[in-house]
Amino acid sequence: MSRWLYTPLTEALGCRYPIVQTAMGWVSDAGLVIATTQAGGFGFLAGATIAADALEGEIIKVIDATGGSHFGLNFHMFQDNAAQCVDLAIRYRLRAVSYGRGPDAQTIGRFKAAGVLCIPTVGALKHALKAQQLGADLITLQAGEGGGHTGGVPGSILLPQVLAAVRVPVIAAGGHSTGRGLAAVLAAGASGIAMGTRFLMTRESPTPATTLERYLKVADPQQVRVTTAVDGMRHRMIENPFINRLEQAGPFGRLRIALGSAWHWKQQTGMSLAHMGGVFLRSLREDPSTLAQVVMAANQPVLLQRSMVDGLPDDGILPSGQVAAAIDELLSCREVIEGIAAEAEQCLDALLARCPAHACASPQDSLAPSGELL
Predict the structure, then answer these.
(1) What is the pTM of this model?
(2) 140: exposed, middle or buried (C-beta count within 10 Å: 0-12, 13-18, 19+)?
(3) Superfamily of domain covering 3-205+330-366
(4) Closest listed residue to residue 184, CA positions, set 172, 196, 170, 169
(5) Average pLDDT over every residue of 177-191
């Protein structure tokens, strides 16, 4: 490996390549994190969708398979077992934790005292500045091209803004699957890339074959679009019959779909006939579209599980980055990571070769203190 790929990210996280596998619900399990780690990347377990009684076992499984705790755990402070996630990350001295809605200063202090790095994910400049203020060690910046809940600003605009404003290393996320992309963000001054969809679409992904086939069939990035129909927030996903039906329905139609969905999976959602009737009566007095979003937000874990666990892509939701349209085969994590690294090195070597005045003995000699190419 050339020194192009030795960055503040690899130094801090102890991985060979500046490539991070993000925590995707029902996807980022121990198997995917093990494959990522063994290939030289850095992986996060999706603590939000791993059952509380299984979480410690998943952590131990990764440690046993990789020989250390050079991986991370993702969690949300609003999940029921958030305290457990915090305690386990500290007990096993995991290299890092990631989160969206961040923990308080006291919890961040506990992580720092234990040597656990804090890597929040943000989607806007103001959130990056706040994350830095709260003590982030690195920041994952998700641009609008990314999958799941996402912002509306593309990486070409957002990344330069954040790089100019923060002092901690930045990891670029949203729209990445190639070495050219890695080379571009390294040249801009970022410390690496984070990918979700590209790792979802690998051979080690636990995603059912029927769902993976749906991802592989995406040929047009416009098929991976933003909708607010599920919970009122911007949510990028592959369009399917369920989303189309939800978007085309009127306020009461959306409420009917939401209640029907919750009732169909009442074992998981806790929906009862009395609860259903109460929500409907409230809708006669309040905004039915708002109530539909509340119910659908509660349904969301089940809708995700239907696609990512049960293998029924038409019955659930398919979070995805637009980059799915650029992926046409399932490679192993090692093939993905090593292929991206090799292509990035080639791109950066070629860029340096076009600048005779900077024909230096080492690639690092052509980098400014910020990490940008001179």
Answers:
(1) 0.90
(2) buried
(3) Aldolase class I (3.20.20.70)
(4) 172
(5) 98
